[in-house]
Specification:
The structure holds two protein chains of two kinds. Helix content of chain A is 81%, strand content 0%. Chain A is an all-alpha fold. Chain A has one domain (2-268): ABC transporter involved in vitamin B12 uptake, BtuC (Orthogonal Bundle). The N and C termini of chain A lie far apart (40 Å). Chain B is α/β, with parallel strands linked by helices. In chain B, helix 4 (107-119) crosses helix 5 (135-148). The radius of gyration of chain B is 19 Å and the shape is globular. The chains are: A mainly alpha, B alpha/beta. The A-B interface holds A 31, 154-155, 157-158, 161, 164-165, 167-174, 215, 218-221, 223-224 and B 52-54, 70, 72, 74, 78-80, 82-86, 89-90, 93-94, 96-97, 99, 101-102, 104-105, 129, 145, 149, 155.
Chain lengths: 273, 254
């Protein structure tokens, strides 16, 4: 069984990079109550991939269509900019604008794929193919994730302060809107990177469940982040060990393990309190 | 004459084209203990934001003494208590702008934060998670955070909102103690006239719907003609065991 898993070790490393990077950001996603912004950005990212695939069949835009990751990043960052600037909340509620974005992005992704050349063959981009991650992909994921994690490590207290109490941060001279945008941009970059391999469902899982586990296990911010990262690593590892030998789809297996970890953390918390 | 920390000169405030308050002219001198009072929706928060620099006036100028440090205590419900933070973590935030970007709090910051917790009487709760504190303890934590930044002007936004009588009395007493002990300048924003009138030295009454603003010593403002004019209803002022009590006069039954 172990040998079978080892055959997919490159995919395992890649999934671990995605899990760890998303888990760190998930702490802010959950605490700021923007979990569905994460889902909408993931959906926008997948719509960006679909757009690129469709463009590759349009003679005037063929060159652009050859760079699905770049177009996906552009679309996701535009979404991050929109939500970072308030998501049009002066006119409609944040929840409504997130819902509109999610629905329209999902529909657009399906429509672009329907009209893309060899669209069916590319469905994998939207659903993700975590077992297809190669060493080169892992290096790319690391190149995207490591600077984001470094940025969040250096400016931990700034991101925390503007998330926790933006009004007071503003009175102390913090440019709250700029920090918000930076947070949303890092989220957009990480989601785009992860979406190339993991698919909407798994990315959404990594943006929510690890932080929930961490929050249930710890009473400190650092402990929460550590708990989130540890639970993501555990979920990826156990998910691989369950899915590969038993021929189960990997992403749902990882999510199931992550969900089980949330349950364990919840029981532990209840017993402690 | 005491130096002025903040001055409003002919200030008009509002949103878009709608003017909420116009021709505001007043100053907050060093050592002042001022209550900014008015009914809900009267424009208190707008004045507060203009003071703190987060709301630009439509006309006029707000002048803040160079180097002035605000110690801002937000309304309690503005803070999210689900964050896994201890009281000390929150108080340390008051030092963040002094610490600088990308740097971690040092021993001096920690000592200053602990001292601030001591000043508000909850040093023993430094390690307690914010979510597990009572309403009064949370308010004290937010006050300690403001004090940790070593401010010149302490600004409290509705510090007793939603509190019971005991907590309200304790918090207002604490604010007055801080002012008397350290001489710190205090601006307290509240809709509760009766509470503020018995603690502050000066009152600024604001009523945006009537475009009215009046500032002066407590004895001058807490009078029946001034309050009746400001609120637009007959108001009665009486004294009970040294406390001022303001009531709306009940219409007589015929």
């Amino acid at each position: 069984m172990f040998e079978t898993v080892l055959l997919f070790r490159e995919a395992l490393y890649g999934a671990l990079v995605i899990g760890v990077t998303c888990a760190v950001l998930s702490t802010y996603v959950v605490l700021r109550r923007i979990v569905f912004v994460g889902a909408a950005l993931a959906q926008l990212s997948s719509a960006g991939v679909a757009l690129a695939l469709w463009l590759s069949g349009v003679s005037a835009f063929q060159a652009a269509g050859r760079h699905p990751a770049a177009i996906s990043l552009l679309v996701t960052l535009l979404g991050a900019l929109f939500f970072g600037l308030g998501g049009g909340r002066r006119l409609i509620s944040s929840e409504a604008s997130i819902g509109v974005t999610y629905a329209v992005a999902a529909a657009a992704g399906i429509l672009f794929i329907a009209k893309a050349v060899h669209g069916e063959a590319h469905d994998i981009f939207l659903q993700g193919n975590i077992l297809g991650i190669t060493r080169k992909d892992t290096v790319v994921l690391l190149a995207v994730g490591a600077p984001v994690l470094a940025l969040h490590a250096v400016f931990f207290k700034e991101f925390l302060f503007v998330s926790f109490d933006r009004e007071t941060a503003r009175t102390l001279g913090y440019r709250v809107a700029a920090w918000d945008l930076l947070l949303y941009f890092t989220l957009g970059v990480v989601i785009t990177g992860a979406m190339q391999f993991a698919g909407v469902l798994l990315v959404f899982n990594f943006l929510v469940l690890p932080a929930v586990t961490g929050l249930l296990l710890s009473n400190t911010m650092r402990g929460t982040v550590a708990g989130a990262v540890a639970s993501a690593v555990l979920a990826v590892g156990v998910g691989f060990f369950l899915s590969v030998p038993f021929d189960l789809p990997s992403a749902p297996a990882i999510i199931a393990v992550q969900g089980f970890l949330v349950l364990l953390a919840w029981i532990a918390r209840r017993n402690r309190e | 004459m005491r130096p002025e920390l903040v001055r409003f000169d002919g200030v008009a405030l509002g949103y878009g084209r709608q003017v909420v308050l116009r021709d505001l002219s007043f100053a907050i001198p060093e050592g002042d203990f001022l209550g900014l009072v008015g009914p809900n929706g009267s424009g208190k928060t707008t004045i507060l934001r203009a003071l703190l620099g987060s709301h630009a006036p439509l006309a006029g100028t707000v002048t803040v003494t160079p180097g002035l440090r605000f110690g801002y205590v937000p309304q309690r419900d503005q803070v999210d208590y689900d964050y896994p933070l201890s009281a000390l973590d929150v108080v340390l935030m008051g030092r963040y702008d002094r610490i600088g970007l990308g740097r971690r709090p040092g021993r001096e910051d920690r000592d200053r934060a602990l001292k601030a917790l001591e000043q508000v009487g909850i040093a023993d709760l430094a390690g307690r998670r914010l979510r597990n504190l009572s309403g009064g303890q949370r308010q004290r934590t937010l006050m300690a955070r403001a004090l940790a930044g070593e401010p010149n002007l302490l600004v409290l936004d509705e510090p007793t909102n939603g509190m019971d009588l005991v907590s309200t009395t304790q918090i207002l007493g604490l604010v007055r103690d801080l002012h008397e002990r350290s001489g710190i300048t205090v601006l307290m924003v509240s809709h509760a006239l009766n509470e503020v009138a018995n603690y502050v030295e000066r009152i600024a009454l604001v009523n945006g719907t009537e475009q009215a603003f009046r500032i002066g010593a407590v004895e001058e403002i807490i009078s029946e003609p001034v309050l009746s004019g400001m609120y637009g209803i007959p108001v009665e002022v009486s004294a009970f065991q040294g406390h001022r009590v303001v009531m709306a006069r009940r219409p007589r039954r015929v």
